[in-house]
Protein backbone atom coordinates (compact mmCIF):
# COMPACT_ATOMS: atom_id res chain seq x y z
CA UNK A 1 0.00 0.00 0.00
CA UNK A 2 1.27 3.29 -0.99
CA UNK A 3 0.23 6.51 0.73
CA UNK A 4 0.48 9.94 -0.66
CA UNK A 5 3.27 11.74 1.06
CA UNK A 6 1.92 15.29 0.80
CA UNK A 7 -1.35 14.88 2.76
CA UNK A 8 -1.03 11.41 4.25
CA UNK A 9 -4.42 10.36 2.94
CA UNK A 10 -5.62 7.32 1.11
CA UNK A 11 -4.67 6.73 -2.51
CA UNK A 12 -7.16 8.16 -5.08
CA UNK A 13 -8.91 4.82 -5.65
CA UNK A 14 -9.50 4.19 -1.95
CA UNK A 15 -10.45 7.84 -1.46
CA UNK A 16 -13.11 7.50 -4.17
CA UNK A 17 -14.52 4.34 -2.55
CA UNK A 18 -14.59 6.05 0.80
CA UNK A 19 -16.29 9.11 -0.69
CA UNK A 20 -18.93 6.94 -2.37
CA UNK A 21 -19.51 5.04 0.88
CA UNK A 22 -19.83 8.33 2.77
CA UNK A 23 -22.28 9.68 0.15
CA UNK A 24 -24.45 6.56 0.30
CA UNK A 25 -24.44 6.60 4.09
CA UNK A 26 -25.35 10.31 4.13
CA UNK A 27 -28.18 9.79 1.64
CA UNK A 28 -29.57 6.92 3.71
CA UNK A 29 -29.29 8.93 6.91
CA UNK A 30 -31.06 11.96 5.42
CA UNK A 31 -33.71 9.70 3.92
CA UNK A 32 -34.39 8.11 7.28
CA UNK A 33 -34.54 11.50 8.97
CA UNK A 34 -36.93 12.80 6.29
CA UNK A 35 -39.20 9.74 6.49
CA UNK A 36 -39.21 9.93 10.29
CA UNK A 37 -40.12 13.61 10.28
CA UNK A 38 -42.94 13.04 7.76
CA UNK A 39 -44.32 10.19 9.85
CA UNK A 40 -44.05 12.39 12.93
CA UNK A 41 -46.08 15.15 11.26
CA UNK A 42 -48.75 12.73 10.07
CA UNK A 43 -48.80 11.04 13.47
CA UNK A 44 -49.31 14.41 15.16
CA UNK A 45 -52.17 15.27 12.80
CA UNK A 46 -53.77 11.87 13.43
CA UNK A 47 -53.42 12.42 17.19
CA UNK A 48 -55.07 15.86 16.90
CA UNK A 49 -57.99 14.42 14.93
CA UNK A 50 -58.48 11.65 17.47
CA UNK A 51 -58.31 14.14 20.33
CA UNK A 52 -61.03 16.28 18.72
CA UNK A 53 -63.17 13.20 18.04
CA UNK A 54 -62.78 12.11 21.67
CA UNK A 55 -63.85 15.54 22.94
CA UNK A 56 -66.85 15.45 20.62
CA UNK A 57 -67.83 12.00 21.89
CA UNK A 58 -67.47 13.11 25.50
CA UNK A 59 -69.76 16.09 24.86
CA UNK A 60 -72.29 13.84 23.15
CA UNK A 61 -72.21 11.43 26.08
CA UNK A 62 -72.73 14.25 28.58
CA UNK A 63 -75.67 15.57 26.55
CA UNK A 64 -77.21 12.10 26.39
CA UNK A 65 -76.73 11.60 30.14
CA UNK A 66 -78.61 14.85 30.80
CA UNK A 67 -81.38 13.78 28.44
CA UNK A 68 -81.55 10.38 30.12
CA UNK A 69 -81.82 12.01 33.56
CA UNK A 70 -84.61 14.26 32.28
CA UNK A 71 -86.51 11.28 30.88
CA UNK A 72 -86.06 9.34 34.16
CA UNK A 73 -87.45 12.29 36.10
CA UNK A 74 -90.41 12.52 33.73
CA UNK A 75 -91.09 8.78 34.09
CA UNK A 76 -90.92 9.07 37.87
CA UNK A 77 -93.26 12.05 37.80
CA UNK A 78 -95.75 10.20 35.60
CA UNK A 79 -95.66 7.09 37.77
CA UNK A 80 -95.99 8.87 41.12
CA UNK A 81 -98.06 11.98 40.43
CA UNK A 82 -101.47 11.94 42.12
CA UNK A 83 -102.89 14.49 39.71
CA UNK A 84 -101.93 12.43 36.68
CA UNK A 85 -103.42 9.31 38.24
CA UNK A 86 -106.67 11.18 38.88
CA UNK A 87 -106.74 12.47 35.33
CA UNK A 88 -106.21 8.99 33.94
CA UNK A 89 -108.97 7.66 36.16
CA UNK A 90 -111.47 10.31 35.02
CA UNK A 91 -110.61 10.47 31.31
CA UNK A 92 -109.74 6.88 30.54
CA UNK A 93 -111.63 5.03 33.25
CA UNK A 94 -108.62 3.53 35.01
CA UNK A 95 -109.26 2.15 38.46
CA UNK A 96 -107.05 0.85 41.21
CA UNK A 97 -107.46 -2.60 42.63
CA UNK A 98 -110.05 -2.56 45.38
CA UNK A 99 -111.76 0.65 44.21
CA UNK A 100 -115.49 0.79 43.77
CA UNK A 101 -116.84 2.84 40.88
CA UNK A 102 -120.16 4.63 41.24
CA UNK A 103 -121.76 5.94 38.08
CA UNK A 104 -124.48 8.44 38.34
CA UNK A 105 -126.65 8.57 35.32
CA UNK A 106 -129.12 11.39 34.81
CA UNK A 107 -132.72 10.35 35.19
CA UNK A 108 -135.03 10.57 32.23
Would you write up a description of this structure?
This protein is 74% helix and 0% strand. The protein is mainly alpha-helical. It has one domain. The chain is rod-shaped.
Major sheet summary line:
none
- Fraction in beta strands: under 5%
Q: Overall mean pLDDT score?
A: 84
Shape: rod-shaped
Q: What's the structural domain tally?
A: 1
Can you count the helices? 2
Helix and strand run: HH
Spatial separation of the terminal alpha carbons: 139 Å
Structural class: mainly alpha
Strand count? 0
The proportion of residues forming helix, as a percent range, comes to over 70%
- Gyration radius, rounded: 43 Å
- Low-confidence stretches at least 5 residues in length (pLDDT < 50)? none
Amino acid sequence: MEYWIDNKSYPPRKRRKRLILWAITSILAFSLIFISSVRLVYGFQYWQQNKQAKESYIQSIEKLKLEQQSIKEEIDKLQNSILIKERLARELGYIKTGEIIYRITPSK
